[in-house]
């Protein structure tokens, strides 16, 4: 399985893996793909710096990438205290009452109150600066084109820049801004997603950006047949995410068994695309928490970055509680295929083997 | 391009085309696929009988199929007059006021008032009876398993029975009921659809029903790369629909240029999944009509079959007016790829050629 993406990055397989876990990212890289570490969870740049040092030391000299969350237009800035003042009391009350109703205990004193600041522009910029002191070969932005000066800075440092796109017109605009690689993320994907499904989106984006811009297919990729489908649609590689939540290496980050229970039992019908996580539409596991926000009388989610500040402590409490009925996590429709926890290397080997089988089956059909 | 579906039906390519137009259906069949005539628009069984006689005479002796709309559980029955009494006045007023606001003129006296009765169980049964007097090889049901006695009657007549499924558990239940072929219809499809996108749905359904039950991939198929992707996912053929609305043969049914204008300019972002067409979620072209129903204060759609009776005259008026800003038609996200009107045979030839190219590209990647 070899495309120009392999030569571009010096990797064996054109399989990129987005993950918040350095253990997963490093294992993907070691297995011949490109592990891409999600930086948004690092409020503390020193912690990111240490984590990337760990990545440098645990990837056998092979390449890896990082993922940031940086809107091109700068949204409301400020500390969590300043921004907190912009959150209506009714919203805070709804969150408190819902947590009470769902039986979610408070956090131990002093833990997890701050929320995720990686959504803030200034913090995302600091993530880029820290990353450039390490050896990532690729920087991807979950919210489209990063600002042009950030793209230029990365290019000067020899990195390729990728941007997620949920529509062909966004992909074209990213390319105009200097982005090198488009990640065409379909409706079925976990996290921030648009409404166009991969089957339609991928060839549209490929045709829109032309043959010189590599496109990665994202959304719904969890087995080798799906890798083959994405490459048949014209992608030069795949961008995976959800499936790595079901790996042994991810346990280092997950912290408790609740997440695994929730993922392993979920079907592809058990996700929902909603604005409650960050203020922008994102696909999450459907639980009592997402359902509470969909009930009549529930408040409308706030714009980014306020919504995440509103729910950050709630999410920390929910995830710490480990109740699989309530847990709140971005995940794609492929969660229906995550039915056992396996080592990253095994998942990777299966993707590659089944890709070959799918191509063989197509050849038989083609005669 | 040859799969067991080809031998099952005696067709050249495993490409099935659902269409309300006998001209399109016959042209697909003549071009080596399987044209499947949608019966729901025939309130008058004599008209269906004549149309199928025309199909018998215009398909060069090659096979074709029919499509019915029959819920397994019998919903509210009755004439349009009986059922009309169940429609709240507020709903009727909303429809009248919206049409006035959108500038949709009334129909000429005596035209199109009755609405589509094909959603009624009794009418769908009469469609089956009429079809069995002709020579279709396949009968597909848009709403899942038909009743078991209908399946048995079709089997006795030598027909294969197909059923649409939007989730693996529905597919399994269809097979238990005696259905022969599953049409795995993804979120991106036009008309009645579920929420799981094709990339995830197709392999899930294939794995759920096992190797002995052929699966057709439906939703998002408009070019040969998408055919290759669907077959890579494990489908034995594809079920197409929307793309045939952009053919010369379809002009016989469309009646005016408004539909073409609307389809040709639409992008893949210009559809919406809504209950306003029939009471069940179906994907339509996004226009001022669908937007009016999404506004605050608009009534909730009624259950099947009441919603279609409520809006039937409105849809006839809208479609007769030919205003592309208001037009109301089921269509999938693939509408973004419909950019010129072509003969059916050309569309078919391109699907086949591009399929071969996509397989060749995958072989190059596979080394």
From TrEMBL, chains A, B:
It comes from the Bacteria. InterPro entries: Aldolase_TIM, NMO. SUPFAM superfamilies: Inosine monophosphate dehydrogenase (IMPDH). Pfam families: NMO (PF03060). Keywords: Flavoprotein, FMN, Monooxygenase, Oxidoreductase. GO terms for molecular function: monooxygenase activity. The keyword Cell inner membrane does not apply. This is Nitronate monooxygenase family protein.
């Amino acid at each position: 399985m070899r495309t120009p993406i392999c030569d571009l990055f010096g990797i064996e397989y054109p399989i990129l893996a987005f993950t918040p876990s350095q253990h997963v990212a490093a294992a993907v890289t070691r297995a011949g793909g490109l592990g891409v570490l999600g930086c948004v969870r690092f409020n503390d740049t020193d912690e990111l710096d240490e984590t990337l040092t760990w990545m440098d030391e645990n990837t056998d000299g092979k390449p890896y990438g990082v993922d940031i969350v940086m809107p091109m237009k700068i949204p409301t800035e400020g500390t969590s205290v300043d921004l907190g003042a912009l959150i209506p009391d009714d919203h805070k009350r709804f969150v408190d009452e819902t947590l009470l109703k769902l039986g979610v205990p408070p956090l131990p004193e002093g833990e997890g109150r701050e929320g995720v600041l990686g959504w803030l522009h200034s913090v995302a910029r600091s993530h880029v600066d820290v990353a450039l002191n390490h050896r990532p070969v690729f920087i991807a932005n979950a919210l489209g084109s990063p600002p042009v000066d950030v793209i230029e800075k990365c290019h000067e440092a020899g990195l390729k820049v990728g941007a997620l796109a949920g529509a062909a017109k966004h992909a074209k605009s990213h390319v105009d801004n200097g982005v090198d690689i488009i990640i065409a993320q379909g409706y079925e994907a976990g996290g921030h997603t648009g409404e166009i499904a991969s089957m339609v989106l991928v060839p549209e984006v490929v045709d829109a950006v032309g043959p010189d811009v590599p496109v990665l297919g994202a959304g719904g990729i969890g087995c080798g047949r799906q890798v083959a489908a994405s490459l048949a649609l014209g992608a030069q590689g795949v961008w995976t995410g959800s499936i790595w939540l079901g790996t042994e290496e991810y346990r280092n980050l997950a912290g408790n068994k609740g997440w695994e229970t929730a993922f392993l039992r979920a079907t592809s019908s058990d996700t929902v695309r909603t604005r409650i996580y960050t203020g922008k539409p994102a696909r999450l596991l459907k639980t009592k928490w997402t359902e509470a926000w969909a009930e009549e009388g529930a408040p409308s989610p706030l714009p980014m970055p306020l919504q995440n500040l509103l729910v950050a402590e709630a999410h920390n409490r929910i995830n710490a509680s480990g109740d699989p009925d309530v847990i709140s996590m971005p995940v794609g429709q492929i969660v229906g295929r995550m039915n056992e926890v396996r080592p990253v290397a095994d998942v990777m080997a299966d993707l590659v083997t089944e890709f070959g089988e799918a191509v063989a089956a197509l050849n038989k059909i083609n005669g």
